[in-house]
Amino acid sequence: MYKSLRQWFAPAPAIPQKSKEEISTLYPKLRFQVLESTFIGYTVYYLTRNNFSPVSKEIGEALSYSKSDLGDILAVTAITYGIGKFFMGALSDRSNPKKFMAVGLLLTAILNFSFGFANHYWIHLILWGANGLVQGMGWPPCGRSLGHWYSVRERGTTFAFWNIAHNIGGGIVGVVASHSAAKFGWQYAFFVPGVIALLGSVYLYLRLVDTPQSEGLPPIEEYRNDYPPEEKENHESELTTKQLIVEQVLLNKYIWLFAIINFFVYIIRYSLIDWGPTYLKETKGADLLGGGYSTLILEFGGIGSTILMGWVSDKFDGRRGMVSLLCIIPIFFAFLGILFNPPGNIWIDYVLFGLIGLFIYPPVMLLGVAGMDFTSKKAVGTAAGFIGLFGSLGRTAQGKGIAVLSTNYSWDVALGAILVSTLIAIFLLFFSWNLRPRG
């Protein structure tokens, strides 16, 4: 059984290279096809990952869950997502992305349906924890695909465009979940995204392709004459498991730096995704739909800036850390604004949510790209998974931490903890100021 699964998921084999005329026609078409399918596929992943938070208050009221119970569900999901992202990343580096990513969407759809039908706390905890695990099958195959079809010098701009899939999916889910729950009941915040995920799974299987070589095309480095530093002779060499995990990741000081920074960046990011709607409902007078729209505003705020900052990082020789630092600083002042904005001015909170979205998503994207810059393209999934693991640990810390602080102390104390995390992220980013992939 295990051997059969490995064979089915195995990367597509290389086929004889096509003629120059066929290559010149097919390469641009398939590059766009890979970008398009991973973009849409990852957008759909978000619909079945972040649909809990917009309706968590309503689930708590319907099933008598405390804020601590809701925090536990968020925390366990973040832990399993981080574990899944790391281990699934290592598996994805040795798998066909069209199959790997499609199966992940199928599994998350099944878990969403199951969550909607369940009404017991422990079942919900287990199901959403399992959902976090299979959600780890989303990002790594995207990173693997884009790493094989787009070269080093275009990586920042390409990933910046692709990364707005986070914003579109994360923004739409707030509206889809809240409207579905308001019209039909909280269960439909999981049923409706589940149906969309089933359709997305079929789409990915039919549309996504594996490496250029599996389509009879040369490697992207050869096609664009853009080789990573010191890798011109061995950029296609396959890596052993030890090389993937130990040499390329665990002994790589740059990967560790980006991973630790990502821990604090994810505290900032997910504090508003996981708890923003609840915070606005409890302190600023927002209703169910208003809480859902706050997520839309946060996510959509980062679309233009992510593309721009990715392009800027390419223009500055890949200095992803420098650009990330300049983005994090305004976020500190935006959180101060939320903290001191009194009830009755919720439009100001919406503006500040949008401002945080504007500046948080470039670092979210750039830290992942920076990890790719400092490892082999054959270890992209593993490196991304490791950096993502630390991000998920950050989400876990805020998921449970904000629940405890807001319940036992106040929302002001919880926001104070986020401000401290922001300052730590700023401090750590100073150490990445001059880091670049080619210098």
From TrEMBL:
It is found in: Endomembrane system. The keyword Glycosyltransferase does not apply. The chain crosses the membrane at residues 103-123, 186-206, 254-272, 292-311, 323-340, 346-367, 379-397, 409-431. InterPro entries: MFS, MFS_dom, MFS_trans_sf, OPA_Antiporter, Sugar-P_transporter_CS, Sugar_P_transporter. It comes from the Bacteria. It is a multi-pass membrane protein. Its main location: membrane. The keyword rRNA-binding does not apply. Gene3D superfamilies: MFS general substrate transporter like domains. Keywords: Membrane, Transmembrane, Transmembrane helix. Belongs to the major facilitator superfamily. Organophosphate:Pi antiporter (OPA) (TC 2.A.1.4) family. This is MFS transporter.
